[in-house]
Give the backbone structure.
Amino acid sequence: QKEVEQNSGPLSVPEGAIASLNCTYSDRGSQSFFWYRQYSGKSPELIMFIYSNGDKEDGRFTAQLNKASQYVSLLIRDSQPSDSATYLCAVQGGKLIFGQGTELSVKP
Amino acid sequence: GAGVSQSPSNKVTEKGKDVELRCDPISGHTALYWYRQSLGQGLEFLIYFQGNSAPDKSGLPSDRFSAERTGGSVSTLTIQRTQQEDSAVYLCASSPPGTGLNTEAFFGQGTRLTVV
């Protein structure tokens, strides 16, 4: 079992729709959870972090964490073509472990 | 510099040769990570340095891979006797000190390694 798993992509949504990205992790001792965005040929950049159960909102982005289910998600509201990228879930309990990423395509 | 700096940006080497990849983290950052990213894949964890603690080497794929961090700053990832499957982008990241929670990792631009 991989330490961090993301739903397989690619995920395609129309412009203006909600994109939902999911991630599960195996280490119950994990403390912090991150979502990074990576454009093709570029390095990852942080979108959001969350460490408490529940929702955390930042503009069009909402991160959700459920430690009992070992599940973290990212919702992108009003998706824009510029959101098209690979989204990486990362989990930290000491070292920082990434999932394999989900490619998101937002169609105009 | 203001960000994480990696060198070289591109490296082409012959199979069997040794290579060294360098990472210069953001000043004051105590944590440093190395990852490998093959084409179309996620980030594969290689090694993690945190301050003066013993590094977490659990991700190194074989004994051909090693890394060191001198003076708590610059890090070098060494790959001995390179193989074609070592071809990938090698990414370095650093993060600031703190409680360990909510510490954003900042990435360098990566080194693209091609083994021919």
